[in-house]
Design goal:
Layout: H1 3-24, H2 28-36, H3 39-46, H4 48-52, H5 56-69
Helix pairs in contact: 1-2, 1-5
Length: about 70
């Protein structure tokens, strides 16, 4: 992975964290816990191009829905 790709992935993750905090009312630490425990991270590692086709708000909603469906 090139440096530019790593930066883009990091920035996307940060934008998703911000969106989860805003949409779900979670503090940054809890939002980060949700992101790290989600399938989003695995997808980001495996297929960053696919992840990049959707806005951070989409992924925030995806992660929040995933979290709620797990009953946590």
């Amino acid at each position: 992975m090139r440096y530019d790709e790593e930066y883009v992935e990091l920035r996307l993750k940060e934008m998703v964290l911000e969106s989860i905090s805003q949409r779900g009312g979670y503090k940054h630490d809890k939002a980060e816990e949700l992101v790290e425990g989600s399938t989003f991270i695995e997808m980001l590692k495996e297929d960053p191009d696919f992840i990049g086709h959707y806005p951070p708000e989409y992924w925030a909603d995806y992660i929040l829905e995933e979290h709620l469906s797990m009953g946590k």
